Amino acid sequence: MTLGTILIDDVVSFAFMVLACLITQRFGIFNLAIESVVINSTFSYACWVSTGHGVVTGGVIALVSGVATAGIFATMAVLCGLDQIVSGIALNMLSLGITTVFMQDITGSDQVSFLWVTAEAWRLPLIVVLICLSIAVWYLLSKSIFGPRALAIEEDTYVARSCDLQVKAYQAWATVASGIVGAFGGIYLALRLSGFNNNQWKLGTGYLALAIVVAVQGKIGKSLWLAGLLSVLSTVAQKLPAARSSRVPGELLDMSPYILVILLFCFVHPRTRSLIWRTMMKTTTSVRPDSGG
After folding, report:
1. Could you give the CA distance from residue 186 to residue 204 in angstroms, rounded to a whole number?
2. How many contiguous H segments (helices) and E segments (strands) does the chain have?
3. How many Å is the Cα radius of gyration of the chain?
4. Which candidate, 185, 208, 202, places its Cα nearest to that of 69?
5. How far apart are CA 37 and CA 67, in angstroms?
6. What CATH number does domain 3-217 carry, 3.40.50.720, 1.10.645.10, 1.10.3470.10, 1.20.1420.20?
7. Residue 6 CB neighbour total at 10 angstroms
């Protein structure tokens, strides 16, 4: 595959995760379990297609798997009131362990694969799905009646309950909706990897997606923009064989995309810009040239 195709695949698969985290974050849920949604849906899709079944029915099974995983997280974190971070991390570890055991039983190895020719034609439709989902989420959270309600729940759940809002119901449905979006990301990831391979899965990707959403305060445009930038920088850093063969440590190259994104966010964030501006003004006014005399 060309570098352009790799960049598109990285951006799209990560954007699905960011969009899923954004939905739950706007309703006050720290959805660390998005990784388990993507892992389970990717594994389900890869197993189904690798056995010779259709890609459409595989997509349905992946969606069911993602929604079921999100439903488990909603039951643990929303309905039962368990700690969201602990529940998410536990579900991620459980999903990774279960898929590893099943792969070893099914294939005798740590991967499930299928022909890329089967998956090639479905890349563009999933990109269209991502665009449509992004527009739908933007409309629902910005222009519809759900926007103010989501803001009230995100700001203070106690106040939202006092206004007769069904907080747990909204949070549960938001978590299930994020499972649908994350499942589409899992399908795209399976197509990108031509299967499922635990060695190619980057632990912590869901945490990065959630961190981006929290950092930009749930703004969908900035979230997707930073997701694309981070994906592009990560891919470029991994495709620098000349730099990797030199004396530059590989760990430094792997860290560089995240450092650049953090620095860029510091300059684009309004509070940081105002702080930098005030510091510059104080420096300018405190250092005055001699007037002579």
Report:
1. 15
2. 14, 2
3. 22
4. 185
5. 8
6. 1.10.3470.10
7. 17
109: left (phi over 0), alpha (psi -120 to 50) or beta: beta
SS3 151: helix
- β pairing state of 195-197 and 111-113: antiparallel
Q: Which pTM was predicted?
A: 0.79
204: left (phi over 0), alpha (psi -120 to 50) or beta: left
Judge contact between 69 and 52, C-beta under 8 A. Answer: no
What is the spatial distance between Cα 18 and Cα 181, in angstroms, rounded to a whole number? 9
Torsion angles phi and psi, residue 204, rounded to 5:
100, -5
The answer to whether 257 and 237 have CB atoms below 8 angstroms apart is: yes
The CA distances from residue 152 to 27, 87, 265, in Å, are: 8, 24, 26
Q: What is the pLDDT of residues 147-174, one digit of tens each?
A: 888 888 888 888 888 888 888 899 999 9
Q: Which helix (H) or strand (E) holds 253?
A: helix 250-268
Compute the residue count for the chain: 293
Tens-digit pLDDT profile for residues 89-130: 899 889 888 888 887 776 666 666 655 545 567 778 888 999
User: What angle is formed at CA 231 by the lines to CA 230 and CA 233, rounded to 5 degrees?
Assistant: 65
φ, ψ for residue 165 (rounded to 5)?
-90, 135
Beta strands in the chain (DSSP E): 111-113, 195-197
